[in-house]
């Protein structure tokens, strides 16, 4: 078995683990800092909206020796508007100019033909009206809103409202970071960007639901035991699925990185940049939020419930009493780490430290095993 597989097995069994929930304030602070940076990027720089959203014309040429900077200068002189020029993989140019009509488009096409020394018949011009661009933008926002509502409803039914609320916060976090990165980097926002954004939201939910499902399973009849608090069980759920989340994220990021850095950067394929950046940033943010935001937030919300508060007090009181007797109850799960009056199948484990020690059961009815030697 590989080292990573061994690590995953040890995390899943509770032999080792990391206290994610216990350090949640650190993750919250980091997330808030990143989110504020993204919001500042949106406020200061704004989004570079594509033609599809603001209307204008896109001119595509055949292979030419004219540089991107020179083509931008020609396009701006011909149109009187700012122009965005991208080099295509076949050596041609994609020239995007916002805010022009059909009549102006013909004049610009003729001027570009002369400046770029390309036959006008070989320059393809696509026009997008501003009203159509507004319609695309509105539909995109409507689709995102409907997606969010459906997600919250599903999670509230399949799990509970606290998990639905935590997942919603994580999704908003992922959207804000991804959109903020677009503003800071200056990449163009196109329908491909919207597609990538919706894709990463689904992927983020996948990781979150996997952890929530484990947490739901491990917290059945949680109040019937006095070994573990809800937060500790939440830690166990995260650690148990950690390696799987890392593996799926890395496997998903590799081809997306190829699209972004090779397809978009080296080959100059503009549309690949639009969709691959949203996928790359969103996948990474989604994996982060599933581990460091969603589940710790659920634990925070659950710990406010009267029953869970009472359970926490009982657990801490029992540990204090055990410590006074020289016993230790703060251990990860092993086959005998449960109360004498509990069924072993009802015991709910949790990771409470970087490395566990084998649990020492109470000495009642079990000889002297329960006392530390």
UniProtKB/TrEMBL annotation:
Gene3D superfamilies: Multidrug efflux transporter AcrB transmembrane domain. Pfam families: Sec_GG, SecD_SecF_C. Its main location: membrane. It comes from the Bacteria. Residues 321-373 are annotated as: Disordered. The chain crosses the membrane at residues 26-44, 140-159, 166-187, 193-215, 246-269, 275-299. GO terms for biological process: intracellular protein transmembrane transport; protein targeting; protein transport by the Sec complex. It is a multi-pass membrane protein. It is found in: Cell membrane. Keywords: Cell membrane, Membrane, Protein transport, Translocation, Transmembrane, Transmembrane helix, Transport. One of its GO terms (cellular component) is plasma membrane. Residues 336-345 have a biased composition (Acidic residues). GO terms for molecular function: protein-transporting ATPase activity. Residues 111-303 form the Protein export membrane protein SecD/SecF C-terminal domain. InterPro entries: SecD/SecF_arch_bac, SecD/SecF_bac, SecD/SecF_CS, SecD_SecF_C, SecD_SecF_C_bact, SecF_bac. Part of the Sec protein translocase complex. Interacts with the SecYEG preprotein conducting channel. SecDF uses the proton motive force (PMF) to complete protein translocation after the ATP-dependent function of SecA. Forms a complex with SecD. Part of the essential Sec protein translocation apparatus which comprises SecA, SecYEG and auxiliary proteins SecDF. Other proteins may also be involved. Belongs to the SecD/SecF family. SecF subfamily. This is Protein-export membrane protein SecF. It comes from Streptomyces fructofermentans. The lineage of its organism: Bacteria, Bacillati, Actinomycetota, Actinomycetes, Kitasatosporales.
């Amino acid at each position: 078995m590989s080292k990573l597989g061994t690590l995953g097995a040890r995390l899943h069994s509770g032999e080792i683990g990391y206290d994610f929930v216990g350090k949640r304030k650190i993750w919250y602070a980091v997330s808030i800092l990143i989110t504020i940076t993204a919001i500042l990027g949106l406020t200061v720089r704004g989004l570079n909206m594509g033609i599809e959203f603001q209307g204008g014309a896109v001119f595509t040429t055949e292979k030419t020796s004219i540089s991107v900077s020179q083509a931008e200068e020609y396009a701006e002189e011909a149109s009187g508007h700012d122009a965005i020029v991208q080099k295509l993989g076949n050596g041609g140019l994609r020239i995007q100019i916002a805010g022009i009509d059909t009549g102006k488009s013909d004049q610009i096409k003729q001027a570009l033909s002369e400046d770029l020394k390309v036959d006008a018949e070989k320059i393809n011009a696509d026009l997008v009206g501003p009203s159509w661009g507004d319609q695309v933008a509105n539909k995109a926002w409507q689709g995102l809103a409907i997606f969010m509502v459906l997600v919250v409803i599903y999670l509230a039914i399949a799990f509970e409202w606290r998990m639905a609320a935590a997942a919603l916060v994580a999704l908003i976090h992922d959207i804000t970071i991804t959109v903020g990165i677009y503003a800071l980097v200056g990449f163009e926002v196109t329908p491909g960007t919207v597609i990538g954004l919706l894709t990463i939201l689904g992927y983020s939910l996948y990781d979150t639901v996997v952890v929530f499902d484990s947490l739901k399973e491990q917290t059945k009849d949680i109040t019937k035991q006095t070994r573990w608090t809800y937060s500790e069980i939440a830690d166990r759920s995260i650690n148990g699925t950690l390696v799987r989340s890392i593996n799926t994220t890395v496997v998903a990021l590799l081809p997306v990185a190829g699209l972004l850095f090779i397809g978009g950067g080296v080959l100059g394929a503009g549309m690949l940049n639009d969709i691959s950046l949203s996928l790359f940033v969103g996948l990474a943010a989604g994996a982060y939020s599933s581990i460091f935001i969603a589940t710790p937030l659920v634990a925070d919300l659950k710990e406010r419930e009267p029953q869970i508060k009472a359970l926490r007090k009982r657990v801490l009181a029992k540990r204090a009493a055990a410590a006074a007797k020289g016993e230790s109850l703060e251990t990860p799960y092993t086959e005998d780490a449960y109360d004498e009056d509990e069924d072993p199948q009802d015991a709910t484990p949790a990771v409470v430290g970087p490395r566990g020690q084998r649990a020492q059961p109470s000495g009642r009815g079990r000889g002297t095993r329960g006392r530390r030697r």
